[in-house]
Structure formats: structure tokens, C-alpha cells
Design goal:
Length: 443
């Protein structure tokens, strides 16, 4: 059962006003040194993820193939060093290096002194309160291009529990992370099964219609087979057009009361809409789970395609189901900047009934998929709630609002680094597709 420490003292910090007796507040320069070491081209490349922190980049199985040049200029990070993205630390792009590796010259590497457990500070730095402090200490010409340089980072105050307490906090949070990641993995598997069920329902209606007695004809497409005799088979470009969303800065995205939609659904708010409903938003890789339909005003973010009613003569609700059925990720490009090739997508052959039948199909699918959609939404809400619980738990534990000194691990609480990394990857499936950095920017 969660409990508080017996005695607290005032910290002088607005984001953590009281600390357990025995804790300190020190500037980061007292806890970390700046590591700038180059000339180690044989080390593996590390990447920073907003969800999972720092990890080794899998160069063999990248969805987007990259050629890393001038690796001798990359910075060396020693196992246990903290690496952060200067421009995105305020979003949580920070973590301890799991092995010796290389990071972009534009990133900052800091080495912990003996009194600092880098895993504890990784948890602390990724709390909402601390990330707000990062914003205050960051500098730049415009807000959404601010950078947290080493000189500013080392001036930031941090909490300092006794080192044994830091180690205990890390062990406790690692165990909770493992439990939560397993929970999310199970929920993701459920969503996958529900999504497959939904796709089967859509597939039959979109390719065969609603009347099982209607005569069929060969579509002329081997993988499509037969379609109703009175339907057309046309290229998608004769049905709709894709357009890009507008550019939206990270700073402005946190303003206003108009929902902002991207390929993963709602991603924030804005103070005005640039597209009127109804609208279909398509992910950069166009996958089944990345096609979203909205009847609310929205502000589509950049690099994301969308289709609104001005871009089609078809029933837009039927078109949504058609695009889900298309599974456009099959023709996406795995280039340095992965994305949906608009020309290839619009040249895709699709079955097209007349407008009235499109409307009937859409109405039927709205009804038949409602229960599955509700189940998916409930499961996604459960994932969201468990993540909110995790964030709250971490914040309470690393700031000393919850005392875990008496916690002892049970059989299910012991987890290896490799297992935790695998579970974290499973738990982050479906997250922001920009989590992991791309080709590092030049310093």
C-alpha cells in the first residue's frame, strides 16, 4: 500500500515543493559531467524514443533504410550515460544508454557521478513537471525550435535522494514497468484481433455489397476476384484526391479547443480549424489502424494526407471503409522518409458501386462495426488509463511523495534489461510514429 514518508521539508522548488527529510536539491552540474568523445566508429548506433528512452537502433530491420556517414564524428555514450535530444527533451526524448554506443553530434551526452543513478534521473527527467522546467531553461529563436544546451542543463536543479534510495526506486519502478508493459501487450493483442474482425466485416461489404443474390463478374484483378456485375472497377484517383495537412508547430499545438488529428487519431488541440468535417485522415504509411474518420472540425498536421468532402464525389463514409479495406501500407515507401506514395495509391484499382449503394453499404457497416469499434475504444481507453497511472506513480515515487523503501520484489517482479526492453517495445506499439529519431540533424 502506498504511503508517504514520515517527515518532509520545504524544497524551494515550485514543481516539487516538499521533499522527504534526507533528500537534497542540487544542480545537474553537481550530478553529471559533459561527455564529448568522438572517434569510435565501430560502436552501435543508439536512438532516442519518446516512449522507451534510449535503445540500440536495429539497422538490419529498419522500415526506412539509412546509410550512416561520418560515424567518427558521432558522440560516444558509455553504458549508463544519459543521452537527450536537445530539441525534444521537453517531450521525454531522454534516457540512459543501455550499452556503449554512438549518438548524433546534435545530441547531449552526460555521465553520472557516483551519487547519481542514471535510471532514477531518467525517470525524473521524463515527468511532466520536470519537462516543463526543461522548457524554461531551453533557448532558441522560436519556441518550437528551442534547445536545451549542456550549459543550461547543468544549471537546472534536480532532486537527490540518497544513492541507496535511488537504487530502490529504480528497482521498484522497473518491476511496475514490467507489469504495465505486459498488461499493454495483452491489450494490444486484443485490439489486433478485434481489428482483424472489423476488417473481415468491411472486406465482404466493400467487395461484394449487401445483396448475396446479385450476379457477379470477374474484376480483372487476380487478388480481388469477382465483384457485383453492375459495379465499376476504377482507379482510386477517379474516386478521391489526397491532400496534405497544414504545418503545425509543437508550441501552437498546445493551444485552443479545436482537436488536431494526425495518423494516430487526435494528437492535440489548436485555436482554429483548417479543414471542415467530414474528413478522412490517412497515416504516412497508410496502414489499417492509421485511417481515421472525423465529423469534427480538425487541423490536420503536416506530412499527413487527408481527404475531405471537397476531394471526392463519393460518399465519404463509404470511402473511409474503402480506404481501410485498401490497406495502403502495402504500397508505402520504406525510404529515408517513409511515406505513402500518392501516385501509386491513387492508381490502385478499387470496386465502386453507385452513390446510393455506397450510402447503404456505409450505413450497414456503421451498424455492423459499432460493437467492434466500441470494444477497441474501451481497450484503448484501458491502455490510456494504465499509462496515466504509470506516469502518476513515477512522478509520486521519484519526487518522494510515495515511500517505497520497504518494498521487496516478488517472483514476478524480477525482470532483465532485455525482457524489459522487449516489453516496452510491445507496450509502445501504435504510439506516435515520430517517436524514434530519424537521420540525426547536424549540430
Amino acid at each position: 500500500m502506498a504511503r508517504a514518508y514520515p517527515t518532509y521539508l520545504l524544497s524551494g522548488l515550485p514543481w516539487a515543493p516538499q521533499l522527504p527529510e534526507g533528500w537534497q536539491v542540487l544542480r545537474n552540474g553537481r550530478l553529471f559531467g559533459h561527455r564529448v568523445e568522438t572517434g569510435f566508429p565501430d560502436l552501435p548506433i543508439l536512438e532516442v524514443s519518446l516512449r522507451t528512452g534510449v535503445r540500440v537502433r536495429d539497422m538490419e530491420n529498419l522500415k526506412r533504410k539509412q546509410v550512416m556517414s561520418q560515424k567518427e564524428k558521432y558522440k560516444r555514450a558509455v553504458k549508463g550515460d544519459i543521452v537527450y535530444n536537445m530539441m525534444r527533451m521537453w517531450q521525454g526524448a531522454v534516457g540512459p544508454a543501455p550499452v556503449d554506443g554512438l549518438v548524433s553530434p546534435a545530441y547531449v551526452v552526460v555521465k553520472p557521478y557516483d551519487e547519481a543513478n542514471s535510471s532514477y534521473y531518467s525517470y525524473l527527467f521524463r515527468t511532466a513537471a520536470y519537462m516543463q522546467e526543461v522548457n524554461k531553461f531551453s533557448r532558441g529563436i522560436v519556441a518550437d525550435r528551442n534547445r536545451l544546451y549542456w550549459e543550461s542543463f547543468k544549471q537546472m536543479p534536480s532532486l537527490v535522494p540518497p544513492r541507496p534510495e535511488q537504487d530502490q526506486i529504480v528497482a521498484y519502478l522497473r518491476a511496475q514497468d514490467a507489469h504495465i508493459a505486459r498488461f499493454i501487450k495483452a491489450k494490444r493483442e486484443l485490439i489486433k484481433l478485434l481489428t482483424e474482425q472489423k476488417l473481415r466485416i468491411i472486406d465482404h461489404a466493400v467487395t461484394r455489397g449487401l445483396d448475396p443474390s446479385v450476379p457477379l463478374k470477374p474484376s480483372g484483378i487476380e487478388w480481388l476476384g469477382e465483384v457485383p456485375e453492375h459495379w465499376k472497377v476504377e482507379r482510386l484517383k477517379w474516386v478521391c484526391r489526397f491532400t496534405y495537412g497544414g504545418s503545425l508547430s509543437d508550441a501552437n499545438r498546445r493551444q485552443g479547443n479545436v482537436p488536431v488529428y494526425g495518423s494516430n487519431g487526435q494528437v492535440g488541440m489548436h485555436d482554429k480549424a483548417n479543414t471542415l468535417s467530414p474528413c478522412i485522415v490517412i497515416g504516412r504509411k497508410g496502414s489499417f489502424g492509421k485511417v481515421n474518420y472525423s465529423e469534427r472540425d480538425l487541423f490536420a498536421i503536416d506530412t499527413t494526407y487527408f481527404v475531405d468532402r471537397k476531394c471526392t464525389n463519393a460518399n465519404i463514409r463509404w470511402l473511409y471503409y474503402l480506404l481501410v479495406w485498401c490497406q495502403l501500407d502495402r504500397i508505402s515507401k520504406d525510404s529515408a522518409v517513409p511515406g505513402l506514395d500518392r501516385t501509386d495509391a491513387l492508381n490502385t484499382l478499387v470496386p465502386v458501386p453507385d452513390y446510393e449503394e455506397q450510402e447503404r453499404i456505409a450505413n450497414q457497416l456503421d451498424s455492423e462495426t459499432a460493437e467492434v469499434n466500441d470494444a477497441i475504444a474501451r481497450t484503448e481507453d484501458e491502455i490510456k488509463l494504465i499509462r496515466e497511472y504509470r506516469d502518476r506513480l513515477i512522478a509520486d515515487v521519484v519526487t518522494g511523495q510515495v515511500d517505497v523503501r520497504g518494498w521487496q520484489p516478488g517472483p514476478d517482479d524480477v525482470v532483465s534489461d532485455e525482457e524489459l526492453a522487449a516489453l516496452s517495445d510491445e507496450g509502445s506499439e501504435g504510439d506516435d510514429e515520430n517517436d524514434a529519431e530519424g537521420e540525426p540533424e547536424e549540430a
